[in-house]
Each structure stands twice: as C-alpha cells, then as structure tokens.
Design goal:
Two copies of one chain form a homodimer.
Chain A (H helix, E strand, L loop, with lengths): L11 E2 L13 E2 H5 L14 E5 H18 L2 E2 L9 H9 L5 E3 L2 H9 L4 E7 L3 H11 L5 E6 L2 H13 L4 E7 L11 H13 L3 E8 L7 H20 L8 E4 L5 H12 L24 E4 L11 H12 L1 H5 L8 E12 L2 E4 L14 E6 L12 E2 L5 E5 L4 E4 L11 E5 L3 H5 L4 E5 L5 E6 L3
Parallel strand pairs in A: 3-19, 4-11, 5-6, 6-7, 7-8, 8-9, 9-10, 10-11
Antiparallel strand pairs in A: 1-2, 3-12, 12-13, 12-18, 13-17, 14-15, 14-18, 16-17, 19-20
Helix pairs in contact in A: 4-5, 6-7, 8-9
Amino acid sequence: MTISPANLNSALISPINKGLGPFDRDLTAAEIAALGWNLLREDLVLPAAVLYRDKLLSNQHWMRRFLDAYNVRFAPHGKTSMSPQLFQLQLDGGAWGITLATAHQVLAAYEHGVRRILMANQLVGRPNMAVLSRLLRDLQFEFYCLVDSAEIANHLGAFFSAENQQLNVLIELGVPNGRTGIRNDDQLADVLAALDRQPSLRLCGVEVYEGVLDNEPAIRQFLQHAVAVTRRLLSENRFAQKPILTGAGSAWFDIVAEEFTASFADPPRPATNSANSANSANSAASAVNIVLRPGCYLTHDAGNYQRAHERMCRSNPIARSLQPGLETALHLWAYVQSIPEPTRAIIGLGRRDAAFDSGLPVPALHFRPGSAHPGASAPQPAPTHWEVTKLMDQHAYLTIDPADDLHIGDMLAFDICHPCLTFDKWRTIPILDAEYSVIDIAQTFF
Amino acid sequence: MTISPANLNSALISPINKGLGPFDRDLTAAEIAALGWNLLREDLVLPAAVLYRDKLLSNQHWMRRFLDAYNVRFAPHGKTSMSPQLFQLQLDGGAWGITLATAHQVLAAYEHGVRRILMANQLVGRPNMAVLSRLLRDLQFEFYCLVDSAEIANHLGAFFSAENQQLNVLIELGVPNGRTGIRNDDQLADVLAALDRQPSLRLCGVEVYEGVLDNEPAIRQFLQHAVAVTRRLLSENRFAQKPILTGAGSAWFDIVAEEFTASFADPPRPATNSANSANSANSAASAVNIVLRPGCYLTHDAGNYQRAHERMCRSNPIARSLQPGLETALHLWAYVQSIPEPTRAIIGLGRRDAAFDSGLPVPALHFRPGSAHPGASAPQPAPTHWEVTKLMDQHAYLTIDPADDLHIGDMLAFDICHPCLTFDKWRTIPILDAEYSVIDIAQTFF
C-alpha cells in the first residue's frame, strides 16, 4: 500500500520543516523515505509529529466496517488533517468524497486530485465564490455547499448566474443558540422562496452538524427534525436530484447513523470484515443518500474522541462488535530538556506543537536513546502518574516522581486531545512503520 | 523601504495558501505584490491575516527609541512570527541578533540569512545538536544557547568536542516552581564544575526569562539575583568573553531594562527620535552586554501585551515619553457568514485562524464591500458591544444588537490577543499599505 497519491509524488519538500531529519536540498516524500530514517535511532529533529501507518489503516478498516453495516456514504472531514495523502487514503478506502470547511480548503484538496467535495459551510464573499467558480469549470468536479438564509442564497444566485454556472446547495438546519443553520419554519420558508428565485442554485439535500449539541436526547431530536424536513421537501419535490441527507462530526456519528438509517434505509447489517465492500451507495430502496462526515477517527485521540468512542462502544452494537477499536495513530515525540526540580521535568514541546483546547498532551511512551539502557530496544509505556500540567509556547511541564528513572535527553511520546489543532501545527509529518522507520511524509496544507 | 531580504526575493509562493488572492502558478512575493490586490476591493480570499506596514514601522521605531534610551542590545524573539522578512526588518533597524527557541527555528532563520542567534533554550538531543554543528561550520555564524544542568553540559560537551567545535553557552537561572533554569547554588556549582570539564563549551553569559513570574516585586528580585550571579561569575573570571546578560519577554522588558542597566550601565538617557542611533553596543564602561528579547511588540496585540504596555506607560518614564505608543499591526479579516438569530452573527474565522489562549479575537473594524453603502470608502470602527463569545475550529460567534446594520458578506477585522499563536496559523501574510493595498507577502516557517 502506498499512501501518497500520484499528484503528490513529484511535490518537493524543503529541509526547512519542523520534525524531519537532516537533508540538504528539496526532496520528494519518496526520496525522503529512502533516506532510511528511524525515530528510535534519533534520526528526527524533535519535537516531531508522527503518524503510525498500521494504526491509520486499522482505524480506516474499523470505520469502513461501521459504515458498511449501516450502508451509508462517507465524506470524512478533511479540515482535521488537510493532508492530501490522508484524503487519498480515505478515498482509496471507499469514501464517497471529502468534506471541507472553507474555499481555501476546497482549493487545496482539488489541486491534489479530490473531485467530490462537500463544503459543510456557507460560501460567502466574492473572492471565495470566485475560487469555486474557477474549479467548477472542471465538469468532473462535484461540489456542494450550504445555505441557511435568503440573503446568502441571493448572493450565491447572483454570482453564479452571472457566471452562467450552477451551484449545488444543501439546506443547513441549526438549533437555537447554536452555530449556523435555519432555526425555524419562517426562515426555512424564506430560504425556499429565495431558492425558487435563483435558478443557478440546485437544492440537493439537507445538512446538520449535531456537534453543536452536547447530549444524546437533544441530538436525536435534532436529527429527527432533519429527517422530517427532508421528508417534507421530498414530498414537495423540492430537490433537483435524489437528495443528500448529511450529518455527523467525530463524536456522535453512531447516533446519526442510527437515526438517519432508521428513517430512510434498511436496518443495519452485522459488521463484516470484508475489505471489498463498496461504500458507494445506499439501498436502492432509500429515498435519500445518507452521508456521514467524521474526520478525527483516522488518527483518533486521547481526549473527547476517546470518550466518545467509549460511549459508542457501550451503546452501539455495531461499534461494540468491531475489534480492535479505534486507536491513537498520531504521536508527538519530544526530548526531556530539563529536570530542575525533583518532581518537575520540562519537555521540549509546547503550544506551537500540540493542541491544548480539549486537554493537554498525555504521556504515552518513554524511550532512552542509545544501547546502554536495558529497555532501549523498544519504547516503554509512560508511568500513569506522569502528567502534563502546563503548556507554554515551546515547553511542557511534566509532573514526575523523584524516584522515576527519567533523564535529560530521554524521548517521550505524547497522545494528543484534539487532532485538528495538532495537525495544523505541522507541515510535514513522518509516517512510520511498526519499527518506527519513516516510510512516507504526510504534507499538510493549512 | 523594502521588507523582503535579498534571499527571500527568489522564493516562490504557491497559490495553495490561505488568505491570498487568486493566481495560477507559483510567484515571488514581488510578483504577487505587482498583482495590485486591495483588501477592500475584495481581492483576498477570507479569512486572511494581514500586517499593516506603517504600524510595523511605528512599533519598530518605538522600540528602537526605548532601547537606545537604555543603551542596551536587542535580540527580538523570532518565535513569535517565524517570518524572515520580519527578522530582516528588525535587523535592518539595528537589532543585534534574533532570539529563537528550537533547533528547527534556528535552521529556518539561518537559511534566510540570520547570522547571530541567541537560542533562549536548551539544545537537547543528538539530531538537534547536529543541526547546530552543521551551521557552526560557517564561521560567520554566532550562536548562543542555554545550560541549566550538569547533565546537559555533559551531553553538549561530549557532542561538540567529538565534532571538534566550540559552543557558546549562557547559564540559565530559574525560579522555584518555574520552567527551566538553575534553582539554587548547589545546582549552579554543579553546572560550573561540568563546564570546567568541558573545554568545548564557552561560558558567555547569564540568561533569565522573567515571564514565568507574574508580579513586579518578584521579577525585580529575580533580576537582581541574575545581576548578583553575573557579578560573582565575573569576579571569578568564569566568562570566556565580555559576558551577555539577557532577559525580557514582551510583557516586562521595561523592568528588565531598568534593573539590568541600574546595575551595569549608564543611567538611561532621554528618548530621542534619531533614526540613526546604533543599537549595537553598551557603554564601554559596562562590564556586560545587556540583551533584551521582546518579540511581540512588533505586531502588538489587544490582550496581555496591550495591558502590559499600559502598565509600562504608567510606570516607566521612557515608555511614557514615546508617542505614539505601540499599536496593533496584525488583523484577521473575515466575512459575516450567517445571522441566524437577531443577537448572533456567525463569522468565518476560527481556531484554525486565530489565537484563543489569551482571549478571543476582538472586533476592530467593519466594512461593507461595494459602493452602495455610505461608509464603503473606509472601514469603520466596530461598535464596542460586538463581542466574540466562542471560537470553534472555523467559526466565531459574535454577539450583536438586533438593530445593528450588519449583513452577510460584510467584512470584519479582528484584533488578536496573542500574536505568536496567530502567526503560526498562517504561512503567507499580506503586508498592506495605508490604503489596504498588498505591497508584500510575509512568509512564515513554523
């Protein structure tokens, strides 16, 4: 398996990037992989973010079996990683498309070969519309974005009719005190009336982001509302095609799968281990195409998404049946830099390297470079009493016990608690095999 | 004045970057500037981060006059922006060197022409030392880093003696419950003994970061301790050269200037407006070279550093005498995307674009594109009751009044509350003139 899509194979990577080893001139990812770097041999300048290939693939396999059991389409959110290699990995694994959030993200994905994009956001502003207008000249490019007001429908309609183009839109439903999205029937009527006046806009479905809510009953109610609106618009022949019904961030996708398929598709089948299942269509009997959009599953984390996964495995029989569960596939490695007090180590890892908005990095592995150390052959699990208590721009405070065998120059791996805000700290992320050898470089385009 | 250093003039910028306008192939910053983009004419894909040239230069002029009044050297912290153009701007303005925090940052600065670097951090790990070893083969490159333990002195000494190279080190002093740095006399004795055994390490001075403390009396006491240690090491002839005494983040640099010059230099002179003052040497009578390191002054902010500046202007007579004071030179511009409730607007700006660890972005300017709007000719100050109450990955929640004249597609500028963690969200930042025209592109290398 190669992770790099063809159009990234020729992209050059500069030696002036964080978390790589030494090289003298711009090289391709394949050329870098051929340098034979190994993390444990201290070939990388730390701090470094790394991805573990085997865990990425395991997580991908988990999700494919989950989605196949529900027979729903998959457009994983790409804003998490903004890494074309990871987009391609997921498309190769049967994803229907990639979800993105901004015109810039759509451009970055398109330029790396993605040809079906659900922009789960409003497209606002003339230059942002112009980006999409240019891409839509490629008739192979399939694109959807959201409308939640008559005003934005009017802006989009005016722009794209002047360009003599059509734009696929989904109606976004929201909740009171939430983010974007239509709050009530009056707003919905306004949007529908505006769409009627804008022939350049094709209504193609209904979208929700349930993650603005924080409890399951409210989420189920919101999803049932989306189902009801979709049924109503179907009955009114409002859609220009078989409609998309889409929801699901990374925390509640099981609930979205349950609610949407309960209303519109066959009941779930037992999960299988088939690698050839085609995640490309709902049951022919279904009136809608259900599209789920979780993005963080691919690397998973040790924070909110780990807790969400535990909840899911308790309550959802499909999730529970899939073993192994999701595993963290992203680590940050850093050196112990100073142990100025018996209970405090300072680690060379900070807010410039790691997300800190959903919890601080969690020590996962300890490794002492060199052969003198008895455990040098493999990283050992970090003691559970090690805890990061503070993150500064370039430093982490680690609480330790005075008796711990920890030294300056030791290497530590950290789990992270929010993949999105970790990925955007790194432009190049080595992908490692099970022996910690670098087999590829994932680039990001934030 | 041109901001780009010579070695950036030929660097190519890809169209796949956030916050730029449209172009079809890689261009240099000068070629992009020649495209004639104007922010108010909607030539940039928002959200975008922009720098205002005139305010950068005003802030730089402010700092130069402040430092000249104290006759101290300046090595602004480059981790804030990691932008070679901004490094060069400050070096052209008389900075003695650039401060950085990691081996990767040093590499990025060196590769863009910086030849004197104070790494205000420990250098840990074989690959990180190897980066510096390679750079130090250039005899024009002057480099300092910190030691705060015998263990790290031994690591560095072993590595650089094997390379047959010498490494300049400063002793870092710390405070109890703080970050890195020597806590007590026993630790200091251990480090000095280790340095005596490592001929490849040249002791060149004493370093503190007072920003780990949060109140002025404790900071003054810590700085006086640094002075006392420096005096003692001077009396013991410990230094390999006229020593550097360095401190000062962006919040307390006035106090550092006061304490260090009170002990080691002439009393401050009244600030001047001279543009030709050479910020290159302390008084010949001084026994040490005092180096201050604030980095955030260049863009300033609307958060902690604004409050620090107000404190400074109340208590420090030099700071008070310098008018105008520091001004915010960095804005994030974004579109109003949705107004789903009468008191809530959703803005297309999020945690992927802005720092949020020291306060959320603050609405600064409001602009309605197009000529129909009476105030279209210039952005207007945002009403003071507009407030960002929540930042998600790609969205901001803005509290408004139902009577406000705010529409979808309006453009808003936001002040930010932590320059460092905003810069690292952007790879390319347009530099604007007073008419909001793009005159250069600052690149960053995080």
